[in-house]
Amino acid sequence: MSVEELVKVCCSLPASASAVTAVAPSLAYLDSRATAALMKELAKCQQLSRAMEIFDWLKSLPAVHELYSLCDVYTFTTAISLMGPSQQLRRALEYIGEMRARGLQCNVHTYSALMNVCIKVSRWPCCLQTQNQLMFIAAAASSFECSNIDKTRFWCVCA
């Protein structure tokens, strides 16, 4: 099934039905980027709880499971970005901790997603700390990403 088809399946489920049960067999055919796209599309369709149900289930899998690799920097970064609208900074920070525990490197996009959550909850010290992390890794970022960092910095300081 495609991401679009999986979104339709999830959107058509009764409230009491499990999204994991409905989509788990098809996740084996997705890579982590497609899984991140599934999460984003579910959130756009007012199905954030289903997106997080799928992500939380994937996180709970043992390292030997065939779907364990779907929890990588792409899906974690997406999960962090999805915490912004619901202002769940604590959960976003927990995801950062889980990434580190798994040995996953946070990248510019991860820190940018976290900074956006910090901005949404008006946690300026956290925002500035995240900005410092962004600037630390900026030396390895492309010039495009660096220009985005500068814009994010401007937004963070001026917001």
- What characterizes the major β-sheet? none
* Poorly predicted runs: 142-159
- How many helices in DSSP terms? 9
Cα gyration radius (Å):
16 Å
Report the helical percentage: 55-70%
Distance between the termini: 42 Å
Shape: globular
Structural category is mainly alpha
Summed over residues and divided by their number, the pLDDT gives a mean of 82
**Beta-strand level of the residues, as a percent range?**
under 5%
Q: Give the H and E element order.
A: HHHHHHHHH
| Number of beta-strand segments | 0
Overview of this protein structure:
The protein starts with a helix and ends with a helix. The longest helix is centred in the last third of the chain and has 16 residues, at 143-158. It has helices at 3-11, 19-27, 32-44, 48-60, 73-82, 89-101, 108-120, 124-137, 143-158. Residues 142-159 have low confidence and may be disordered. By secondary structure, the chain is an all-alpha fold. It is globular.
